[in-house]
Specification:
Glutaredoxin, seven-stranded mixed beta sheet, three-stranded antiparallel beta sheet, globular
Amino acid sequence: MARTESNMLPLGTLAPNFSLLDTVTDKRRTLEDIRGKNGTVIMFICNHCPFVKHVNPQIALLAKDYLLKGIGFVAISSNDVLNYPQDAPHLMKENAILENYSFPYLYDITQEVAKAYEAACTPDFYLFDAALRLVYRGQLDDSRPGNGLPVTGADLRMALDFLLAGKSLPKNQKPSIGCNIKWKDH
């Protein structure tokens, strides 16, 4: 289980646009489709990563809690499915249903979206404000598989609460840690 940290995209970065396949509905979705009026959470995840499996219930709960507050949510998988067939789109759909995702689960076949966001690991979390400027990138919380800490979503929840309250977010943010994105051999 490789431990890869987030690249920590600079705060203030404008969210790169995308148009990707929603594996649940088989329709293309864009950033404009999923953005929330008060902010947007973009998560890079995959099916097989033990770090993602560890936080899946919390990210499903987090979305349910904040979708009602005008926050858009989307998950994107950019893994190479040739070498990691368990991350294939039809299995992403099954996983989204199993985990009760209330947000689109998109497939980044070219890996261009992951590169645009400088995503490095799964899970990797980004929070953009209403103007699609990056205000938080980092961990969900301090819990990791096997460390015994409960999965609470504390760090991302705090960032969301600060954003919704109009408060400035702390600049010192802890990177997410997870499995590296499975890049294609080109």
